[in-house]
Amino acid sequence: PAETLPQPEDTEWNKGLEARIARAWEVFETMGKPKFICAPMVDQSELAFRLLCRRYGTTLCYTPMLHSRLTVEDKTYLEKNFSTCKEDRPLVVQFCGNDPDTLLEACKKVEDQCDAVDINFGCPQGIARKGHYGSFLLEYPDLIYSLVRKLAENLKVPVFCKIRILPEKSQTMALVKGIQAAGCSLLTVHGRTKEQNKHLVGPCDWDIIKEIKATVKIPVFSNGGIHFFQDILRCLEYTGVDGVMSAEALLENPALFSGEIHDLDRLALEYFDLWKTH
What we know:
Number of helices: 13
Distance between the termini: 46 Å
Strand order of the largest sheet: 1-2-4-5-6-7-8-9
Largest sheet: 8 strands, parallel, barrel
Strand content: 5-15%
Structural class: alpha/beta
Order of helices and strands: HHEHEEHHEHEHHEHEHEHEHH
Mean pLDDT: 92
């Protein structure tokens, strides 16, 4: 369990926690205090889609999940899987991985083209189990802390993290405190466990997200349980989070965050135009 694994003693690093928290809020303000966020989606949240979402209320976008090892080992991987432009800001590039050095090397390749990097601790798919990344790292908090700190100490841009919750609330709360202490500048919480996936998806737990927001001192985004614009407003009010992230609802309606009704066929044509350009 997360609460039984002690973090390494480092007095100097621990002394710097308040300063890191202050910088986290400076980063959040510099990004415009985004409330409406396009989630990182495997093979989905690519440049053309991000630009379409930005036209209709999305104020921060994440790239699709990139694999850190492939980014480092395959010279063509990044070119094939990552692109951006001057209109595509603020932007967070998400990576998966389980080796601190490899993850850092991958992040170094994009740190000049984004506002932050995000570590994926939330993917529940079988490929994440096989590759030992995503939500399958949640049972190894010491590894999570080492990944976060490696990036926090060595990158020019801040480090964000996206997690799922653990089966026991005490485990989750210990984990988020440890992630904050390790140097995370913004935390996104998907209010489901990794087992709550596909046909077992179940309701999103906004109660624990509310408790996490009240506990940690860095900005927090909520993920999960969003279908319509009214859900976004309810989530912001109930949990007190700083922003709401959407994946599937945004795929269904890229204008979700506008709070308005738009013709989806017209949005599809706009997407094609953006795709041709980018």
